[in-house]
Amino acid sequence: MNALTKLIAVEMKLFVREPVSLFFVFVLPIGLMLVFGLPQRGSSTQGAGQHGELTFLPALALALTIGMLALFTLPMALGVYRERRVLRRLATTPVHPGLLLVAQVVVNLVMGVAGAVVTAIGVRFLLDQSSPANMPGFVLAFLLGVACLFAIGLLIAALAPSARAAQSVGPALFFPLLFLAGAWLPRDQMPTVLARIGDYSPLGATVDTLAASWAGDSPALSQLLVLAATAVLGSALATRFFRWE
């Protein structure tokens, strides 16, 4: 077993021992669907507006999971490691501290995939709706959404001066992004400019591309490109400004 594999195994154990993180990944999405989705269980027709779309709720639940992993869990964990000088100590060993960052990303990605599977199963059996109809488009939208949001999370970890700051910046960014995605107010009821910003915001584009793929349509190319561009830019900036101590 090489160093990276060992780090991934350790980080996975630490993750599953944290009840709050498991709540974000598995309990919250299912709870969201049970509370808001049961009234439309088994329905084959959609209502008016964004919130009336049958695939909006499962796409929002999945984007919620990815967003919380990216903006809550990832920056806080890396901030704690830097604050406790774990990254600095690793730099004095044969194990490069960059491997710990890779391990963190891998673990959060694995948990995000697990959350996606649980969400899809929940939609199928709890809401009596079909699984994603356009699976290639769904996988592409999911991976680009993860890459985009994780890049933002890494950038927060790079710029935040402390673990407490990272723990504050993530939620401060997450909830406005959730609003722009249409979680509370449907985007079709927002002012035109605000709705257009929401269409291409990280969570808004993730929700839309996931929902379109779930319904069997092709996700919008412009939104996929925005997710990809944000992932590249965020990763580049995080690499440029990341501090080991």
UniProtKB/TrEMBL annotation:
<protein>
    <recommendedName>
        <fullName>Transport permease protein</fullName>
    </recommendedName>
</protein>
<dbReference type="InterPro" id="IPR000412">
    <property type="entry name" value="ABC_2_transport"/>
</dbReference>
<keyword id="KW-0046">Antibiotic resistance</keyword>
<feature type="transmembrane region" description="Helical">
    <location>
        <begin position="59"/>
        <end position="81"/>
    </location>
</feature>
<dbReference type="InterPro" id="IPR013525">
    <property type="entry name" value="ABC2_TM"/>
</dbReference>
<keyword id="KW-0812">Transmembrane</keyword>
<feature type="transmembrane region" description="Helical">
    <location>
        <begin position="20"/>
        <end position="38"/>
    </location>
</feature>
<dbReference type="InterPro" id="IPR047817">
    <property type="entry name" value="ABC2_TM_bact-type"/>
</dbReference>
<keyword id="KW-1003">Cell membrane</keyword>
<feature type="domain" description="ABC transmembrane type-2">
    <location>
        <begin position="20"/>
        <end position="245"/>
    </location>
</feature>
<dbReference type="Pfam" id="PF01061">
    <property type="entry name" value="ABC2_membrane"/>
</dbReference>
<feature type="transmembrane region" description="Helical">
    <location>
        <begin position="221"/>
        <end position="242"/>
    </location>
</feature>
<dbReference type="InterPro" id="IPR052902">
    <property type="entry name" value="ABC-2_transporter"/>
</dbReference>
<keyword id="KW-1133">Transmembrane helix</keyword>
<comment type="similarity">
    <text>Belongs to the ABC-2 integral membrane protein family.</text>
</comment>
<keyword id="KW-0472">Membrane</keyword>
<feature type="transmembrane region" description="Helical">
    <location>
        <begin position="165"/>
        <end position="185"/>
    </location>
</feature>
<feature type="transmembrane region" description="Helical">
    <location>
        <begin position="139"/>
        <end position="159"/>
    </location>
</feature>
<feature type="transmembrane region" description="Helical">
    <location>
        <begin position="101"/>
        <end position="127"/>
    </location>
</feature>
<keyword id="KW-0813">Transport</keyword>
